[in-house]
Amino acid sequence: MKINSEVIARTALRLLDDVGLDGLTMRLIAQDLGVRAPTLYWHIKNKQELLDAMATLVYVEAAERLESPRDGSSWEDWLADWARHLRRAMLSHRDGARVLAGTYVNHETVHRAVELNLRTLRDAGFTLSEAARGFPTVLHYTIGHTIEEQAHTSAAYGDDNPYAPERLAAMIDAERFPLTAQASSDLLGMDGDAGFEYGLRIVVLGLRAAREEREHG
What we know:
Elements: H1 5-23, H2 26-33, H3 37-40, H4 47-63, H5 75-91, H6 96-100, H7 108-123, H8 128-152, H9 165-171, H10 178-182, H11 184-187, H12 193-216
Helix pairs in contact: 1-2, 1-4, 4-5, 4-7, 5-8, 5-12, 7-8, 8-12
């Protein structure tokens, strides 16, 4: 097999599901590929470059089938669907959201996804500046929420996960903090899709409200 940065990144994503981000090393990747670790450094200079390459693959997976909104569809629904695609792509890999967070992604498919987002928001009446700030707001919410979501179900906890519902109930003094006890599942986003959708709706409605405030200002 010819070794290049994409092969290394794909191998790293596969191993990620077994060892998690903290257990992923260049030595482990090299061992899986049947080469010595120094060989990898001809293609990937360091751990950050590895994360960038891995994040690019995840982002491209989410964005490669992205198209402009169909006639009659709203920008709100289109933008929310894009966020859902990205979340699913991150959830398909252990620690997938941590891989994307703070990484530098430079790929034509990614640039095209950004262009479609900006164009969709411009067509919906946002200024370019509003679109350029609004799109990352949705992106950052999606990544941040998914980081927390994956952390709460992390395999690193094993059978001793403090976020397990029965453990949460036992940890909170319901007499002193009755509202916190009752709402613990919602507070920590333990309801999965429903929690993500609620936050996504708030973000999208906030973008619309900001645009309308400027228009009627």
